[in-house]
Please model this.
Amino acid sequence: MGKSLHHIMIGKFASWKERIYRNFSEFLNGSTMALNGLLTFLSISSIWIGINGFFVTYVSHILLGLTPSTEVCLIVFLVVFSTYSLNKFTDMKEDEINMPERVKFISHRKRIVLLSALSAYSLSILLTFQVNPYAIPIVVIPLITNFIYGLKLIPRIPRLKDIPIMKNVFVALSWASVVVLLPESGNISSSNEFTVVIFYFILVKCFINTVLFDIRDVEGDRAMGVETIPVILRIKKNLDHTSGHQQHSYFPGSIHSRRG
Model:
């Protein structure tokens, strides 16, 4: 009788243990899938790169010796989110190879993405007007550089977009200009002696980041005839385990190089 009861208790304990383990495994797998889905959504929707812009601007304030301004950081978030969302429309051919999930996301939400991008940029200009009207030219720098970058100004001379390295330079300049000059524009005191140093630091960091992301996109760029630095150097896509997830990280892996 005692042995029988003992065996019954052991069996029930094993059953409970198995049930708890199975429920925990299902919860863990579900949580992992949900987290991966969230990170993927944030990445392909440009929200994550916008968040990076927010915090890079926050850090820029500190490096410049300024009190971080939430309004300025929010303006940069809106500008970055809008710019990269608009660029997704011009990069769809390359992304069919590099990031098919992004193309699928955009294809089913073109109007929503376009409307959200335009609304974000309009809101960024409105906020800038309220914070510091004289800083509006800084906010439109990414928009202007995008326009000049893809425009053929002189016949028989290729667009800047078609010249190797220029894409990386333009992206880096846009980032450095916005995240450094925008916080500095609100500094009514004497000019900050570290501004040039900080600008150069972020410029170089952003340039390196764009090249790293070009390694991730090398297959699509090569197929479309886009001569990026990795394509010219014939670098193979062998950094998937790092560059493929860099957009989920903080600075310096946060600056994506795609420009339409």
Notes: The chain has two domains: 1-44, 47-248.
